[in-house]
Amino acid sequence: MNDAPIQLLLADDDIDDCNLFVEVLRELPLLTQLSMVHNGEQLVQMLLKFVTLPAALFLDLNMPRKNGLECLAEIRSHDKLKDFPVIIYSTSFEPAVIDLLYKKGAYYYIRKPAEFPKLKQVIHRGIMLAINRMGPQPEKESFVIQP
Amino acid sequence: MNAPENNIRFLAGGGEMGALIRAKDWSKTSVGNPASWPQSLRTTLNILLNSKFPMFLWWGPELICFYNDAYRPSLGEHGKHPDILGMKAEEAWPEIWSIIKPLIDQVRNTGEATWNENQLLPIFRNGNIEDVYWTFSYSPVQDENGNVEGVLVVCHETTNQIITLKKLQDSEVQFRNLIKESPIATSLFRGPEFVIEVANEEALHLWGKNNNIIGKKLIDAIPELENQPYMQILENVYKTGETYYGNENLAYLEIGGMLTPVYVNFIYKALQNADEKTWGILCMGYNVSKQIEGHRKLEDAEERLRLALEATELATWDLDLHSNEIIHSPRLAEIFGHNKNKILTHQQMRSQMNPDDLHNVIEKAFDVALQTSVYRYEARVLKPDNTMCWIRTQGKVFYDEEKRPAKMIGTLRDITDQKMFSQELEKKISERTEQLKQMNDELKKSEERYHLMVSEVEDYAILYLNKDGIIENWNKGAEKIKGYKAEEIVGKNFSVFYTEEDKQNHLPETLLQRAEKTGRASHEGWRARKNSSLFWGNIVITALRDDQKNVIGFSKVTRDLTEKKEADDNIQMKALQLEQKNKELEKMNAELQSFAYVSSHDLQEPLRKIQTFATLILEKEKQNLSDKGKDYFRRMQLAAKRMQLLIDDLLAYSRTSTVVGTFVKTNLNEIIAEVKSELKETLEEKHAIIESEGMCTIDIIPFQFRQLMLNLIGNSLKFSKHEIPPHIKLKCEIANGDQTKINSLSPEKMYCHVSVSDNGIGFDPKYADRIFEVFQRLHGKDQYEGTGIGLAIVKKIVENHNGIITATGEPDKGARFDIYFPA
Question: DSSP string spanning A48-109?
């Protein structure tokens, strides 16, 4: 039994979504500790400061100053962050965009569901996949996390 | 040693060889001392030594050699003489032993003599082995008992004869070769019957024969020579030995089956023996027919010239100016209509002349002649038979020592025919002139008619310009179109019809130049009327040329096409406007699509939040809500759900037009499997059956085609009948356009035909087109959920695949969708 909380990072500029994420974590049967950033620039600076990296990053795509895709590209450009689990966390669901994100090295994709119970499900699944992860980027088939 | 003289008396005489035999010590040879020689040897030697004929004797088993003086020269100088006397034959004649040994053996064995003529037996003499020819006989010499003791050789050297004969043969071969190679026809006839012994190619060619005549008698080989002089000439040459030279003699030879005249130059030369006896004739010659022919032609030409001269029928005369006595040729009398023997006086001649001509022509010509010495006139003569003829006289005055005219000599010719001819000619010319004049008049009339016609034409301005562009005439049409009256405009330059701008650009001049260069210039453009208003003119300018092709002016035809021009412009403007409208529409459409995309994309977020918070309230605050509140909440959720569907469909729809898809070879089964898995819950819930047949692998845009199948199958599931499980049939086949029976497809092209049919509620056929439009719904929202975009997306995707889609159906009898796109 490991009592240390699971370190998670959320990059999202939407306060509602941030609050919902916190609400979900509170209800999950997991001990977690969440850090949040609200724009892309902050995100990369912060990631580089970590001594121990979080277990996973939940990355929103639609952010001011630097969007999710740009952030992903920058994260993967740093040696230290090459194998860091990035889970895309977005409202939209564009097949072409999803393909591109996988190519750029994202690990998983979560489409924010409309129902709260489903939201809990997908975030839970995402965290479990991230912490039990073995090896680098998973297969494309398991890229999109379905509720 | 002294041999008793009586014992060797048989050796007495015998010249040099007799002395040598006597002197030789024979005791060392196998024949022994002469005293012991048998009688047969003695007798033979006696004959041998006393013979003037060359003889040789081999005696005894060793064939000891003896020979006489006559034989001695055959041994030459520095050769066998005198060493071989008393030598064994084998040692004496080693060089020919192999030849003579068999002959000797033959004689000794058979006892019969041999005979050889001109036999080559090379012997050593004069320091060399020489080729020597012999005619000889070996004969046996027998003893009393008939045994052959020796072989007597009587011989005669024929080397010189043989060599002479050979030389003769060589020279004859050379001679024959010489004949063969000769560039002129050469042949040799032997004997008094003239057997053709040799004839070279040239000779055969000349005679027109081939070489199978060699060896034949001449008269047999060339039978056509009979009755021609040549055989006689040959016989004469043969008889007399005198050489005959023939020059340009005509011979008839059968050449190529035709008796052909041939002119030849030739020599017959007798060939004689040393005793001047003729044995043959050498004949050399060549064909001169061509030269002769040339000659003949020249002669013919001369003859013709002479005849031509005679044909001019010139008469001559000689007039003494003192006595007026005239001497004339008989022809003159004939010309004057008399017998040619008639002698006419000068007076008689003058009396026959036409009196007018005598006075006006002849006397004047005579006076001129006395001045200039040249007499010349043409005049009419009245013949005794009252017919008339024309004569021409030409003469020259000769003067005496005091330079006084003494006489005139001249010619006179009947020129009636010529005169008649020229009179005929004159008549013809005047007739033709008359015709031309008439034609000219006709032309003038027709031109007048034409001008009249032109001037009356009203729809066209027809005018003539001179070559500088000055207007020369004006018709009614020109007045009507351009507004000028004839008197106002004729004489002005046609450039007045052009706008200022065209004038500055030199358009009028350019058009004239073009017409001059190419024959014709046409142009359409604005032209000015007299009142400065403009009309749209269609102008054709044609260059007019004279016989020498020089441009003498231009015709100019102008039509007023203003109305047509305005109509055209109108159409063009309308088309332009339409095009612009279309562009605007396209732009608006694109904007709309991108707006639809962006807006619906951005709408997703707030909508999702509404939904999320709604679920949160229902989950966590349920106890605080009345039943009514809960109901409102559920309705709100349903509305939000509908909105979400709408947004998803709108996004999918705009995605099909904004995102460019890539075609990938895909098996339709894979697509169907994906769709089935996506619809799994609904399929199970409705107990639906999907049957698929002939799913092929084709070029498609995979994610779009997936959407298409999803929408069509989803449609079938949605519009299924209550209580009846949906049965959906999918079918795929490749067919050419012809087979599909659809007009808008190319008949020869191959198409992939995918059909989806169901057993659902169907639809009224009148909506078959409408159902593909965006937001078109045939049913109320409460009955069947849906946004009315699904089939619009389907249509869009089919269009993206360059295909077409049709829908067929009837209420309650199911629906069927057919998709065709290029395979």
Answer: HH-SS--SEEEE-SS-SSS-HHHHHHHHHHSGGGTT--EEEEES---HHHHHHHHHTT--EE
Spatial contact of B213 and B222, defined as CB atoms under 8 Å apart: yes
Read off the pLDDT of residues B432-487 as tens digits, 9 standing for 90 and up: 888 878 888 877 777 777 776 677 777 888 888 988 899 988 888 888 888 998 88
Q: Which numeric CATH code is attached to A6-145?
A: 3.40.50.2300
From the list B729, B712, B685, B714, the residue with the least C-alpha distance to B785 is: B714
Provide the CATH number for the domain formed by B5-157 in this structure: 3.30.450.20
- Chain B residues in contact with A116 by the CB 8 A cut-off are 612, 615-616, 619
Which residue's entry shows tokens 């085609």? B705
CB contact under 8 A, A119 and B607: no
For A116, the closest of B612, B641, B703 (CB atoms) is: B612
Q: Note the ipTM here.
A: 0.84
Give the architecture-level CATH label for domain B313-415: 2-Layer Sandwich (3.30)
Four-way CATH pick for B452-560: 3.30.450.20, 1.20.1260.10, 3.40.50.360, 3.40.50.720: 3.30.450.20
**Residue A136, min C-alpha distance to chain B (Å):** 27
Inter-chain residue contact A116 with B615, CB threshold 8 Å: yes
pTM of the model: 0.39
Q: Is the pLDDT of residue B27 over 60?
A: yes
Q: B753-762 b/e with 16+ CB inside 10 Å = b?
A: bbbbbbbbbb
b/e burial code for range A82-102 (CB count within 10 A of at least 16 → b): eebbbbbbbbeebeebbeebb
Sheet hosting strand B551-560, strand order edge to edge: B460-466, B551-560, B534-545, B520-528
- The shortest CB-CB distance from A114 to any of B608, B619, B655 is to B608
